[in-house]
């Protein structure tokens, strides 16, 4: 008679293989968007049959990565919303917003190269929708408070800031720019209408908070 418990290691191995394949795919697709599934299997240390057992085709693999990015972004936005209340100055909230989403964008920036060809603009828009809504809300609040310029509607300004952030991520992807989010945060505040000197000061303060939170989380 078979023992049900014997299946547990198999399920654990399956989860481990899937996670390793996805992690390898993030790395290899960043280097070469045209990498084949066979090459990914070898790089992941699994046989071709194992990879195809989890992802029967390129579309399935990319969709899994897209959903992974979407979940990471939603989790980051939820954490940010819990961190800052409605009374937080909009310029600090915007800087924190950029710092929060930058690691997610940096980790999944390879998806930008695959957006039009593989994922489709509608799927990319779906992934980015929560961030777009949050960014527009912060910009709208800053406009009401008089700290951001108001010659563009908040949704339009948010779209412009998003396009700039995507462009900067692409520059990071190409190796033309190195950034941990600081440069992009300062640039975003300037684009929103904050004077450069003030923008640098706000970002420096928020960066210290982000580093302290990361250190505290690592110690827990």
Main features:
220 residues; mainly alpha; elongated
3D structure, described in words:
By secondary structure, this protein is mainly α. It is built from 10 helices and no strands. Helix 5 packs antiparallel against helix 7.
Could you give a short description of this structure?
This protein has 220 residues and is mostly helical.
Helix content: over 70%
Number of strands: 0
The proportion of residues in beta strands is: under 5%
Tell me the overall shape: elongated
> Helix and strand succession?
HHHHHHHHHH
Cα-atom radius of gyration = 20 Å
Report the end-to-end length measured between terminal Cα atoms: 44 Å
Low-confidence stretches: none
The description of the largest β-sheet is: none
| Mean pLDDT metric | 85
Structural class by helix and strand composition: mainly alpha
Count the helices. How many?
A: 10
Question: Secondary-structure map with pairings?
Answer:
Layout: H1 7-31, H2 37-44, H3 48-54, H4 58-83, H5 90-107, H6 110-119, H7 121-145, H8 154-174, H9 182-192, H10 196-219
Helix pairs in contact: 1-2, 2-3, 4-5, 4-7, 5-7, 5-9, 5-10, 7-8, 8-9, 9-10
